[in-house]
Structures are given as C-alpha cells and as structure tokens.
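Thread amino acids onto this structure.
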C-alpha cells in the first residue's frame, strides 16, 4: 500500500498546532496589526511620542496640551493672537465697569462668567474657560490682567474721550472667540486733565545698583528670571496702603522692570540682582513685568 512514511505521519501529529492554538495566534497577529495602525495614525495626526502640538509646561499632560478645545481660526485679534472659536452656549463672557478713583485715575472691574483667571498656568495649554485678559486703551495694550480689579492711573490717559477694551485669552495666548469675534467688552472713559502721551507711559528709572535697606521695606518680593521662566511662578502680593515693598529681581539677560500704575522702572543688568523700593501709596491691582521679555513677575494688590 502506497502512503507516507510513519515518521512523517508522527511529525504531522506532533507539529500541527491544535485548533485553539491557531486561533490564539491569529488573534495575536490581528492585535499587533491594529496597534501598528493606531501608532502610525497617531504619529501622522499629532506627532505622538515627539514634540507636543502645543507648547505646555511640565506637569501638563499631552492630552491637555493637544486637546480639542474650540477651533483655531485663521484670523487674529488684531494684535497677532489667533482666535479660538467656541460654541456660544457656555462660552466665556466678560463685562467692564469703570469707576473714578477718589485720588487718582480710575478703578476698573472685570466681571466674568464661565471663566476663571489662571495666572499660574499662563503659557500652558488652552483649557476650557480659563486664562487671562488684556486691557487696551484705544486699541493699545495697557496691561495683562489676572483678576477682576485694575487701577488705571490718570497719567496713562491723555485728555479727551477714550475707549477701554478688555479681551479674554486662553493660557496659550489665543483669544477666545464666538461667531468669529473675540470675547471682549468695552467702556467709554473721558479724561478732563492732561495726561501722559498715548504711548507706553514710562516714569522715573531707578538705578540698577541702588541698594535696598531691609529695615526700610515692610515686604520683600524676590524673583529670578532664567531661560524665559519666572521663579517662583507669578503670584499676587497683597499690601496695605502705605506699606513699602522691595522688588528684588535677578535676570539672566539685560532687561527693564516696569511697575504699571506707579510708572516706576528698574534697569536689570544680566546676572545681577537689582532692587526697586516702592511705597504702595495707591490702591488697586498693579502688574510688575519686564519690558523686553514681556514676562509678568508679580501683581501688587494694594488695599
């Protein structure tokens, strides 16, 4: 009788995997192919495993940084910030109220809805209903706002009628928008006395080498700027009116410190600590920032 050798028959019985094993191998191959397809799709769409699609701070997840919050529009706010479109329902809202200050200038109140100020995460990902605001006078940026109150000195407003605008931004500096328009509010203001020029108002510049006397300061704020980052993270410094504060800043590059509202400046030499002594004789919220690098160092809240 013609047939296969016994050794070949025994090999077939021994080497051929059972049906269950074959099904397991097929399932494993399908899973591997699916994983490979997902990996390739992720890499093509968002660059997973590489550089995040949005610059975000350490501690912010990739999902947060590249999330689908709104839609980036090709248009901007007029100052180079892209518009981030969100649905009207649940979108951030803002109102601006202007009240004359009893001593100088005006106190501005920014009322928001579906929105919160997040100074500690500025420069991070665009998260729903969060960020900061810009204050503009006749289309010129006056300050970045991280809270509901701001004091606008009379020296920064020329005589005549003006328009104040407050606009809401995400942490990544895109402007929140609804129906293609930025989320903003405007108010009219009339200055009856001559003020400074409409440009950025600069006050006296303190000498960078002016030493600080710890006995003369009620509070001290020490800040370091390195590689474009502020340490500690920008926060709010609360003061009582009349208190003296020493602003001690060390920057790794030459820059200029500016205290909004008080019109005080301080030259910052590279790699050296410079100190600005300031008497908080005006109430309100005042931003302290650098001119060249446009970094917010702290906010002075004077009550």
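Threaded sequence (303 positions):
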């Amino acid at each position: 009788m013609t047939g296969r050798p016994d050794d070949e028959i025994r090999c077939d019985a021994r080497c051929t995997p059972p049906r269950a094993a074959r099904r397991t191998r097929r399932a494993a191959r399908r899973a591997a192919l699916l994983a490979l397809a997902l990996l390739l799709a992720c890499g093509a769409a968002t660059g997973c495993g590489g550089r995040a699609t949005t610059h975000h701070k350490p501690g912010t997840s990739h999902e947060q940084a590249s999330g689908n919050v709104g839609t980036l529009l090709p248009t901007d706010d007029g100052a180079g910030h892209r518009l981030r479109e969100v649905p009207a329902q649940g979108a951030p809202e803002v109102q601006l109220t202007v009240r004359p200050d009893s001593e100088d200038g005006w106190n501005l109140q920014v009322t928001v809805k579906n929105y919160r100020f997040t100074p500690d995460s500025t420069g991070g990902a665009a998260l729903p209903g969060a960020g900061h605001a810009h204050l503009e006078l006749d289309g010129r940026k006056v300050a970045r706002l991280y809270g509901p109150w701001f004091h606008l000195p009379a020296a920064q407003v020329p005589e005549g009628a003006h328009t104040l605008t407050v606009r809401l931004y995400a942490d990544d500096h895109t402007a929140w928008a609804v129906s293609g328009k930025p989320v903003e509010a405007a108010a009219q203001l009339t200055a009856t006395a001559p003020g400074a020029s409409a440009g950025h108002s600069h006050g006296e510049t303190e000498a960078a080498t002016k030493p600080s006397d710890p006995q003369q300061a009620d509070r001290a704020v020490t800040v370091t700027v390195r590689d474009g980052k502020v340490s500690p993270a920008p926060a709010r410094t609360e003061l009582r009116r009349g208190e003296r504060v020493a602003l001690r800043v060390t920057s790794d590059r030459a820059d200029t410190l500016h205290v909004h509202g008080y019109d005080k400046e301080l030259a910052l030499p590279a790699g050296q600590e410079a100190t600005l002594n300031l008497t908080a004789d005006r109430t309100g919220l005042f931003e302290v920032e650098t001119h060249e690098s446009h970094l917010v160092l702290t906010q002075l809240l004077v009550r």
